[in-house]
Amino acid sequence: MESETTYQLLDGKQTSADIKAELAVEVEKIKAAGGSIPHLAAILVGDDGASHTYVNAKVKACELIGFKSSLYRFDASVTEEELLKKIEELNNDPDLHGFIVQLPLPDHIDEQKIIEAVAPEKDVDGFHPENIGKMALDLPTFVSATPYGIMQLLERYKIDTVGKHCVIIGRSHIVGLPMSILMGKKKNPGNCTVTLCHSRTANIKDFTLDADIIIVALGSAEFLTGDMVKEGVVVIDVGITRVEDNSKKSGYRLVGDVKFDEVAAKSSYITPVPGGVGPMTIASLLMNTLTAAKRGS
Hints:
Blueprint: E1 8-9, H1 12-32, E2 39-45, H2 49-65, E3 68-74, H3 80-91, E4 98-101, H4 111-117, H5 129-136, H6 145-156, E5 165-169, H7 176-184, E6 193-197, H8 204-208, E7 213-216, E8 233-237, E9 241-244, E10 252-255, H9 260-264, E11 267-270, H10 277-296
Helix pairs in contact: 1-10, 6-10
């Protein structure tokens, strides 16, 4: 169904490419000055397909812009002790500016213990409690990559957020919770009146119909539908789910948490899936790594 409303796509792929180009220029300047080239490492445990894809994309992005990158692979049977030993080694490596431990980890490993073992100054994923605390207090820190990427999109598309009602659906520590803090901060993007909704929120539609900006990070395919939003809304879709589709060669298609055609018809701006928030997450990780390298030099 064609709509009267024309929406603009918040193109994460293009914005991410722009950021990478800016970072490549920065790397050239560092090289010319004889400085330390930003170095990002990743620890990958097990054979999770999505994690492999994501980590490979990070390695490729590093190569593209001139960063150094290292990848440490471990079998799913790795012990917590072995993993902690590797983290300790990376924490003490003066040549390494930042590293990530790709989540999820196998059940026998305590994820929180691993997150807290990473030195805060090398935690470019922004997951360490110290960095989350600093982010909440508006102190200089690493903002976790997905929320940072969303803030970059809003900023670069010059979306006015001041005084707007922002509804966030999902309260994860990785996206929903930090987004609720960032959107309420005294800056632009920010200065919103924020409502944080989740699986226990009654009458969620009452909140979304009143929202000027909706950020959906539920992991529930096509949850947000056209009848849940008002005209002119700005929609950020963080979800990505594989849905069976026999018409595709792969046998599936990727959808977000938003029923795109219905919601886009009413939106002023909307992110696509794929090609929206995903590429921005990697760009933000690279930005954090550059920040870490500059701090360490």
